[in-house]
What we know:
The protein contains seven helices and three strands. The relative contact order is 0.10. The protein has a single domain, classed as Winged helix-like DNA-binding domain superfamily/Winged helix DNA-binding domain (Arc Repressor Mutant, subunit A, Orthogonal Bundle), CATH 1.10.10. It has 154 residues and is mainly alpha-helical. It has helices at residues 4-7, 17-42, 47-59, 65-71, 79-88, 110-131, 136-151; strands at 63-64, 92-96, 104-108.
Amino acid sequence: xxxxxxxxxxxxxxxxxxxxxxxxxxxxxxxxxxxxxxxxxxxxxxxxxxxxxxxxxxxxxxxxxxxxxxxxxxxxxxxxxxxxxxxxxxxxxxxxxxxxxxxxxxxxxxxxxxxxxxxxxxxxxxxxxxxxxxxxxxxxxxxxxxxxxxxxxx
Length: 154
């Protein structure tokens, strides 16, 4: 196993344990995200588009754009652009709210649902490849530690 210090060819110790953990988190996240990016590109979508599809399927009803943005795993500064691209690809459908024309509802289109069904197995397999070497208790501990770290920031 290569330590972060070795991977970065760092000669001096890290300034703090927190710094080392943070850099480890960034490095690991980048590696994992790149693999998911490759998978999603094979299906012609981005990770942000996958996230929108996942949210819509999970909720099971149309959502306003801002509510989708609030549920994203990664903050997307231009959710409207992501939605526009998905509309062009017929993955979602949009409709304006009758009561407030400023609100746009987004719903999962049949093509988007079929794409998610195709992705379900490869996504689960990638999760297993990335974290399957850890025990169930280690994965749960990792999730718990990450939730604790995130809670302090929210």
